[in-house]
Amino acid sequence: MNRPPPTFAIDTSVNNGLAYFEVIGEFDARTVPQFEAAVTKQNQSTPDMDFVVCLSAAGIIDSSALGALVRLDTAQRKANQSLSVHAPRPFQVDLLQITGLTEILTITSNCEHCR
Amino acid sequence: MTAAQQDSTICLTLPADYEELPLIRHVIRQTLPPLSRDQESRYLGAITEIAANAIESVTATPLWPYISLTIQLHPQPAVIIADRGPGIDASSHKPTKYGNLGQGLIIAKAAVPNLSISSTAAGTIVRLPYPLPNQAAS
User: Fold this and answer.
1) What ipTM score was computed for the predicted complex, to two decimals?
2) Structural domains present in chain B
3) Which residues of B are less than 8 Å from A65 in CB distance?
4) B107–A95 C-beta distance less than 8 A
5) B:109-128 residues touching chain A, CB 8 A cutoff
6) Which residues lie below 8 Å from residue B48, measured CB to CB, with a gap of 6+?
């Protein structure tokens, strides 16, 4: 059986003092390290920025991915920076509510950076 | 990977490795009827949670470091994921011994409320009935 093609990418950009990470594809235990590596790389090249993580193109989000978002939020707070998570799809809203993360993370339903 | 296909069931034995998660989702997409975009995200998200739990479970007990994926096509489509890990307490959503497995089960149950879990000290079997296209998933 042929392996499926790669199903994950991170599109990173910086605009007006904001670092923007668009998560594309399947955000799970396998791809969390790629996400965290992209964030670390961005932090090293341009430290002390507010972050936006856009999940509108993420078709799969699991508890490992949610854990990564919580860790990033904690790190941003410690650095006196912010994290906004753009999660517009119904399954994403449900997921964040089920896990109680709507009480912890800053969630937005629209994002000026979205395609 | 070993595979055996019968008339109505596809069985795969896969290494207990997160690298297998895309393959698991791919096989399900290829063999079961298409769902709406949101239904697919919910169902495959639940599959991902259960498969990741199974992988984590057997990684901690490496006597048989594999998980099995069974796709039942008829009469009622369903996906069954099994492992030979130390088992979970399905009523409390807590692991018996290893890791932080509880949150994934809660998420999976929210997405597929009629999933069933059979777990003993010899392993865990989770059956996730496949939703009918356009059937509400939650």
Assistant:
1) 0.90
2) 9-114+121-129 (3.30.565.10)
3) none
4) yes
5) 110-111
6) A26, A28, A29, A60, A62, B21, B24, B25
